[in-house]
Specification:
The chain is built from 28 helices and 14 strands. The chain is mainly alpha-helical and about 700 residues long.
Amino acid sequence: MLARLHLLPDSERAVARVSPRSLWHDDKWWFENIKIGLADYELMFDWNLRIDGESTLLSPQWSTLLEDCRKLTWSLLTDSRSGRGLDPVTISRGFRQQLSTLLRWMVASNYESFSQLDTEASWEFHDHLLGLIRIKKSGEVASGSFQFSLQILGTIYRQSAALSEANVTPMPEPPYDGNSVDKVAKEAATVENGWIEPLPDCVALRILAQCIRWMGHPIDDVIRLRDLYLNLETSKEVGVRAIETALREFRFTVIPNESKPWRDGLGTEADYSRNTGGVRTRLDSALRALVAHASSACVTLIQGTTGIRLSEVAALRSGIDAATGLPSCVSIQQSKTGLNELFFLNSQVTKIHDGAMMSWVIGMRPVGSSYLPPAVSALLGLERLFEPWRKGSNLPWLLVKPAGSSCLSRHLDMTSTTTRETIAKQMKNFVGVYGGLSDLPETLRTASGSIDLAPYKSGEGIRTHQWRKTYALYILRTDPKMLPAISQHFKHMSLAMTEEGYIGNDPELLDSIESVRRQRTVKFLLEQARSSTIIAGGMADLVREHREKLRSVIGDSDEATSYQKMEAWVTQGDLRIWFADHGKCFMTINPSESRCHTMGQTSPWLKGEPNYAQRNPTVCSGCKCFAVDHEHIEFWQARHQKNASILKAAGKDHFNEFMVARERMRQSASILRTLGLPIPDEGAQENG
């Protein structure tokens, strides 16, 4: 527990320690690093903030303001008056950025202390921030980033009591006439950016496909190449030459069912460097990049198929469980039904939960199966990839950073803990080189708008947190068009999350899934408002009847404003659509008509979601809460074809015995016919 140093007398505070490395009056505060995957500089608060063209906050004329800022900052760490205090990382990064912007404006506007910042001043600051945004190229005001900038005055005002106790005169009144910062930001916004978009399907699936491909021969080759490099016996005279020769002669393997090695030798086009814009001609540098690519393939596969944060990946511990042969951070439990085995990933959570160990479901398999979820294969890959460096430095983490900057160091004892920044940068590099996105168009046109794919193709558009949203999206619906391995995994995950009732103990993951559900609901309703697409199912008539209402919600607004209006309408009405690969459930509109609850004798009003134990395509197709549109065509075509094949194989003599197949075929044909699609083997139902 940190002491409330801001309340100490001046003489005691002057010699007080803010950490083992820093005193109160030091130019830099170095906080203790309690979070895995953070570089030291990310926990350093530098008080050398630029105030104007000639001075910084450390200049003598700003000594009083500097002390007030120090007291404010320390009170936010130890004496927050708005609930949970800020952590050192937030203080050193986000809050310092906010404070720097505020101080430059204060000095330029002749405000010398917090006590002068009344509500009129707050609106001046508001207009100043708008001006800064509007001189940028786009000129768009995004509510999320604008709220971040405005927040500093709300933070200072909420600390008024703590500041008064520390002999700092607080703000005289609440900023922005007492309005919430969120409201002020939204009123000024021209675009909404509070939502982190999932990756487009065409981007996410290709990247994940490449990651799965890397889990076989590619990562084996990288490990063989690593061993060759580390085991080379060289002298000073022939060291570089011997290494270059050995690396140049290495031959990569051919993946089964392919005709040539999965990549050319080192020092070729595959070793393109985003930093220099050319090919890495030094081969130990190319090897270092290849090790980073292998690591990124594993990390991306873990994030993309589990939804955990990058910080939780960085905190994973190494080791193999002798009993299971699996990573020690993975445990297996039997499901509630006893039919399946659930894989749990255990890691340390530093965001919100202060380093507590938590668990996530990361896969499921039938009892007795040898199937390994993609994330487990990736964890095993990381265990093997960094084993020499981990042992040489005695580090416990699964992810480590070999020494060296441009080349791969052979000094294993100089290995360090990797940082989140490094992991994120390497992921961008991997996607740019091996993501498989090069032949995608520059722009993808969808029913709800256009998506610029160029940033994704280069890797620059990839944000690690997007994998959390993408994961949530795939849990909500497993699309038949998805790659088989990914489709299988997410079908298992969806079952584990819903029917088995497992989510781990991370409630924020539930929030992510729910926010994705809301976004998909908004996009579906926007599509209905802008078009006359055909819908089948019991809910079709109601959706068609309400199209005019949907159109009136958005009016003639542009794309961004239409989304905001529809999202507000959906949120106000608590409207949620439940997505499945066979259709959409609108049970929140008319819960009493929910057929899955009627059959299961459960209460839709209490549960608030479908009865997953009863829900299936046959039940849903006869439900008044169900709708099918173009997204689900492939499912119903495949269902019709499968049951038609069953009836054809049965022959005329046994045709009448297959009542279930006949009914499934009839339902599929009815839906496809409503959607205006031709029905193959139209006569099969009558002729067998």
